[in-house]
Amino acid sequence: MQNSVESFINALESYRGRDKVIRTLCYGSQLVGGVLAGKNSQSSLGKSLLLFSAQLSQCRTTLRLFDDLSMLAYSTGYGLGASEEDALVRWMSVLNNVADQLYYPCEHIAWAADAELIKTKSDKWWVLSTGLWGISLILNILRSIRSILILKRKAQKRQRSGSAESREEVFSQEAALRRQIQGEVFSILSSLADLGNAIHWMPPGFLWAGRFPPWLVGLMGTTSSLIGLLQMSSGDQGACS
C-alpha cells in the first residue's frame, strides 16, 4: 500500500506523470458522468462529473502550450532514426514526429482563438490538430505492428539457430522479447482507443464522427489512459498525447 502511494506521489511530481493522472481523471469522470446522465438526464452528479471532465481537458490543453520545445528536442534527438535497424520503423517514426510537432501549434492557435486572443475561427484549427493526432495514432499502430513482426522474427531465428548460450541466458532473452511484444500490443490497444475518439471529434460525415455518446468517449479515453499509466510505471513512455 505504501509503495503504491509513493509511486502515485512520484508520478504527480513529474509533468508527464501528472498529465497522465489528470488525463485518467478527465476521461474517468466523463465515463461515469456519461453513464449517470444517460440513465437520468437530470442527474446533478452526472452533469457535475461531465463539467469536471471538461475543466480537466481545458487544463491539459493549456499545459500543452509549453510542450513544443520538449517535442522539438525529442524530434531532433531522434533525427532520421539512424539507430533504427528497420527502414519502415525508422520512416514511420520520423513521420510520426513530424505529425506530433505540427499538432501543437495547430492546437495552440485553436486555443488562442477560443480565448479570443487572436481573431480567427478556431474550428478549422481544431479539425487540423485532431487530424494530425489521428495520423500520429495510425503511424503508431503501424509501427507497433511492424515492431511485433520483427520481434517475432528474431525469436524464431534464435530458436532455429540453437546457439550455445546457457539456459538462463536464453530464458532471459525470450522473456525480454515477450515483454517487448506485450508493450507493443498495449501500445496498439491504446492508440486504437484514442483513434476512436479522434475520429469522433472530426467533422460530421467522416466515418463515425460525432456519434459517440459521452460515456463511450470516456471509456475509450480511460482505457488508453490506464494503459499509459501502466506503461509509465514499467518505464515505457511515449512522446505524444
UniProtKB/TrEMBL annotation:
It holds the Pfam family PEX11. The keyword Translocase does not apply. It is found in: Peroxisome membrane. The keyword Glycosyltransferase does not apply. One of its GO terms (biological process) is peroxisome fission. Keywords: Membrane, Peroxisome. One of its GO terms (cellular component) is peroxisomal membrane. Its main location: membrane. This is Peroxisomal biogenesis factor 11 gamma.
